[in-house]
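<tokenise_the_fold>
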Amino acid sequence: MKLKRIGVDLAKQVFQVHGVDSHEQVKCRKQLKRAQMLDFFRQVEPCLVAMEACGGSHYWARELIKLGHQVRLIAPQFVKPYVKSGKNDANDAEAICEAASRPTMRFVPIKTAEQQAGQSLHRIRSRLIRARTALVNEIRGLLGEFGLVIAQRGGAAAHRLLQQSLETPDNGLPGKMRELLKELQDELFAHDARLSRFDQVLQQQARSDERCQRLMKVEGIGPISATAIVAAVGDAKQFSSARQFAAWLGLVPSQHSSGGKNQLGSISKKGDTYLRTLFIHGARSALRACKDKTDRRSVWVQQVQCRRNTNIATVALANKNARIIWAILSKGESYQPC
């Protein structure tokens, strides 16, 4: 079968394909089971295959590339305007096929298996942190019902409060409650141990990756941020400019401009929330450390902090770090502090 372009609506078990020829005439519109996908594309001459960037899309993209096809992934929000009527699999596949034909369409880079493994590591670590935070809050809440309260927050304070509560015999805790607290303490130790192992793995990855080593020279970028960036964007060459990379992270102002009047608002918060959080947390740490420094970068961010406020200065520094990182990755350069 000879087709010019195929749009594929992905799912877990049922897939819809929509193919057109060189005259943009529909020549293929059918539903495939998961086991039929690769067999179908083996019978099709190499052509452009478009899919939405969703769960499983990077896997299928790698498999279809092995068969000689040219694969393009499109963000779902860019496909939506091309859906002609009600939502169903056939209309979605047709919309994907149509969106891929636009000359100005933006495509999502296809991730390697190693990149996805790196991102999986960060996702699991993030989930463990959320679970640990929930456990700490639960411990504080339960002990607060017995009048045992400390002002400090965080895991270390929860460990101290638990230990003090268990070691103090006359604090009014019933025996059953002490048993529950001992189980919670063991659970908290287990969370800490797992997080420690994940951090060690990330540090080892950062030491063994030359790109991470170059990124960690930027103030506010540590092993966790560096490995997350490399896993998410690779060499960052899919971004044509530093601003485009910062915009993808959601670190540039949102716009509501019309009639020649430019109106800028707060940051857009588009893109990868996890990466943006790491950038901002790293910038906040770097901002605290630059109070006594006199280099150009530190003086600039101190002036922004004085002129505006700490939060705006933090985001501004995160934006600058993003632009520096784009240059480091896309051009293969090393960071040169100013």
In short: The longest strand covers residues 26-33. Residues 5-100 form a domain with the Nucleotidyltransferase; domain 5 fold (CATH 3.30.420.10). The CA atoms of residues 9 and 93 lie 5 Å apart. Residues 175-208 form the longest helix (34 residues).
